[in-house]
């Protein structure tokens, strides 16, 4: 069996910088047509210059592959409308992190004071710049996303013309919120479609599956699968592929993040195939994102075939992917 | 401030075997008067000979300290009354593991068929041998203990004269079950009084705090604290101190277990002191166990003083304790 995916898009991707960027950029650019690039570098990407310089580094690191890095800014509540007008054409969205909630998010938002956020969010709304949100409170790890839903609702109600993307959703509560507001959208990762907390900590502890938001309960995964496999029109694929060097994953104080970029399309094909939903993969992994963001990525056809693919144990002796050393049932036979 | 604890008892202890036994036995025997020794060796302890040979190895490894190892058998549903009569004086209890639920529990019980369990449990009841149970189902990791409560109830109802100890309880559901049946008792660990899942996976991942049953929610810890600090008469201290070599804790596939034996009394004193409950520590850590099990351990006075104690980073370059490299507010100044 063979399928062709046109212009696959990864609407939530961490490419990092420096040596790690050199390793991971070509692994995304090989099979994806474009990706939304997260801005949580050190320091975070908060200026027009930083956006464009980072974009140049990505363009160089992606090698010969056709691939558009859609850039983001790190949300700050003091961005002026003048600044946003200037930077508008260089970015596709702005990413909001609650302070300290994940890797390199220390400079994020503390508290969600409507007064404080309004001027930037009104400007974004006027200029048509979507807001991507890492929606977690500082509460108990299993409750953080569900507790954040009222903040999503507050934002959705107060800024009805602002497109708000609930990033890497992991709960049935977030899935339910999707349909309550016209301007709420969501990305879903590969790993949250596959795993629950049981896979991370139900048997032996698996640091390579440890991520934020943490994988949740079986009924949460079921809710995510329903909208992803069903090609819900407001749901997009965003891998949240988040590489860390092996030595920082395989030690106490292991960083959060699952590295999935190079195996994402293969594993998605396997999952959609298993559930008899292959006809919906194109929407989930490209068409929905094109429509929601109004983008036209460079044309790329990716041909996948149902035959065994052995996932590498590690890339460049540095980054361990999800399914390392295991077999997937689908392989990429051509991309370009 | 100084307190004296008489005859401290650890009613759930893993001493392992071989090199690990040599390392950890003296660390328990130094400050505890006795401990209930878990039988999940490879192979599990299932014969009179194995009990007595293991006891001899422990007596040797504990060094010069006064310390009674109370032995247990690994539960098998085919133990006969004749066998139990023979082994009765060599053991204090029998430990039941569901198959595959934790370290070296592969030979445990599959399913909880009353018919199958009855002959052994009736014999134990007749002979007055308590049943210690690792109470978890094979369900979702956060639900396993709560799901097991109906099995505890089935056992408590059908064997009203059998003392049943719910080992290392971690949930408010188990705490609630305690008072519903006269013959249900419980042990609580040090680590479950201190941590929730947030401490294991809420920030960076902490393998040295990864254990089974996994640490639960804040409201669960509160329920445990209430009965431990309140000296509930059916609750005993059982550390479930479970040493693993550092290299097996600090790698993917990290084994479950927190090593607390050498710092347990100090950390308990800190906790009870912080909550203004020092007067109840003697009941929790000794008197309740003496009464419930009807034992008279060798006399040992342990004097603790409120002054800084720096916990070692590692013991014998092999086992990392809870609070490694951190300061506790209480130290042991004399034990003997």
UniProtKB/TrEMBL annotation, chains A, B:
Listed GO biological process terms: 'de novo' pyrimidine nucleobase biosynthetic process; 'de novo' UMP biosynthetic process
Organism: Hydrogenimonas thermophila
CDD domains on file: DHOase (cd01294)
Cofactor(s) it depends on: Zn(2+)
Entry protein name: Dihydroorotase
Family under the similarity heading: Belongs to the metallo-dependent hydrolases superfamily. DHOase family. Class II DHOase subfamily.
Residues annotated as catalytic: 240
Entry's cofactor comment: Binds 2 Zn(2+) ions per subunit.
UniProt keyword annotations, A-Z: Hydrolase, Metal-binding, Pyrimidine biosynthesis, Zinc
């Amino acid at each position: 069996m063979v399928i062709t995916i046109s212009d696959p898009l990864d609407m939530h991707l961490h490419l990092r910088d420096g040596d790690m960027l050199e390793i991971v950029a070509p692994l995304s650019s090989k099979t994806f047509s474009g990706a939304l690039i997260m801005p949580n570098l050190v320091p975070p990407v908060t200026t027009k210059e930083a956006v464009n310089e980072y974009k140049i580094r990505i363009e160089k690191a992606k090698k010969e592959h056709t691939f558009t890095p859609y850039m983001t800014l790190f949300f700050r509540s003091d961005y002026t409308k003048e600044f946003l007008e200037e930077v508008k054409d260089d970015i596709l969205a702005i990413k909001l992190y609650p302070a300290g909630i994940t890797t390199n998010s220390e400079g994020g938002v503390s508290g969600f004071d409507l007064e404080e956020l309004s001027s930037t969010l009104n400007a974004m709304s006027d200029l048509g710049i979507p807001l991507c949100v890492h929606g977690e409170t500082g509460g108990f790890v299993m409750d953080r996303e569900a507790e954040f839903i009222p903040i999503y609702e507050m934002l959705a109600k107060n800024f009805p013309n602002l497109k708000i993307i609930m990033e890497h959703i992991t709960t049935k509560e977030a899935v339910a919120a999707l349909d309550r507001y016209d301007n709420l959208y969501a990305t879903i990762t590969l790993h949250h479609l596959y795993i629950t907390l049981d896979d991370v900590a139900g048997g032996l502890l698996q640091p390579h599956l440890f991520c934020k938001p943490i994988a949740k309960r079986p009924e949460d995964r079921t809710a995510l699968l329903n909208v992803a496999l069903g090609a819900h029109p407001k749901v997009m694929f965003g891998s949240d592929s988040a590489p860390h060097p092996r030595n920082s994953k395989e030690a106490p104080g292991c960083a959060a993040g699952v590295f999935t970029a190079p195996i994402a399309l293969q594993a998605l094909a396997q999952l959609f195939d298993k559930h008899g939903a292959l006809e919906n993969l194109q929407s989930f992994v490209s068409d929905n994102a094109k429509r929601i963001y109004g983008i036209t990525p460079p044309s790329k056809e990716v041909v996948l075939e149902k035959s065994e693919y052995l996932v590498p144990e590690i890339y460049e002796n540095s980054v361990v992917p999800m399914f390392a050393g295991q077999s997937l049932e689908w392989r990429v036979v051509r991309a370009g």
